[in-house]
Structure formats: structure tokens, C-alpha cells
Design brief:
Elements (H helix, E strand, L loop, with lengths): L4 H23 L4 H8 L4 H13 L3 H5 L3
Helix pairs in contact: 1-3
Length: 67
């Protein structure tokens, strides 16, 4: 089941939603351009690494440099 395309799609969408939530809570409303760039990421592992970066970032600009 974990290898199915549907499962992977749901997992990726959840990771993206959580990342966007973290960023919004930490930095406030996000620029549309950044949300679009994050929505374009299809690699789940990349989204996880960006979640780590969001936790560690001191400001939105430093996070954006990693996207």
C-alpha cells in the first residue's frame, strides 16, 4: 500500500500542507510566489528537508534562499 501512487500523492500533499502551515504560523501570510514554488515541488523528501529548514530559519528570507 505504501508504494501505491495514490498513497504517495496523499503523503506528499500532507507534507506540503504541513510545511505551509509551519511557515504561516512562524512568518505570517506567505507571498503567493513562494506558495507557488512550494506547490511545484513533487519530491516528498525535498518537502521534508524544507520542513526542517522552516523550523531552523530565523526569517522568511533565509528560508526562501533554500527553496
Amino acid at each position: 500500500m505504501r508504494d501505491s501512487a495514490v498513497y504517495q500523492q496523499i503523503l506528499q500533499e500532507g507534507r506540503l500542507e504541513l510545511l505551509l502551515y509551519f511557515l504561516d504560523r512562524k512568518f505570517g501570510p506567505l507571498p503567493v510566489e513562494l506558495v507557488q514554488r512550494l506547490n511545484a515541488i513533487t519530491n516528498g523528501e525535498r518537502l521534508l528537508s524544507l520542513a526542517d529548514a522552516a523550523i531552523d530559519a530565523l526569517d522568511l528570507q533565509s528560508f526562501r534562499a533554500q527553496v
